[in-house]
Write a structure and sequence with these properties.
Oligomer: single chain
Mean pLDDT: 96
Radius of gyration: 12 Å
Number of helices: 2
Order of helices and strands: EHEEHEEE
Structural class: alpha+beta
Low-confidence stretches: none
Shape: globular
Strand content: 25-35%
Largest sheet: 4 strands, antiparallel
């Protein structure tokens, strides 16, 4: 399941996100979206978890939780329209 993670602090690394989500199960990939010119985080990213049940637990538990001073917004990623 692809999970959207928003309201990220600019100090959060992909490793930080991986550790937060690994508490709920296997993490396939972590991708923080970066500005193509400055290379700085845009404040959101995506986490891919293969097991739907683990992904739903992570979404429910991490939504609103603080990571490096910011409350995360976590939800199932919606495909681009």
């Amino acid at each position: 399941m692809n999970i959207y993670v928003g309201n990220l602090s600019f100090e959060v690394t992909e490793q930080d996100l991986q550790q937060a989500f690994e508490a709920f199960g296997q993490v396939e990939s972590v991708n923080i979206i970066k500005d193509r010119f400055s290379g700085e985080s845009k404040g959101f990213g995506f986490v891919e978890m293969p097991a739907k049940g683990e992904a739903e637990s992570a979404i429910n538990d991490l939504n609103g939780k603080e990571l490096k001073g910011r409350a995360l917004k976590v939800s199932e990623a919606r495909p681009r329209s």
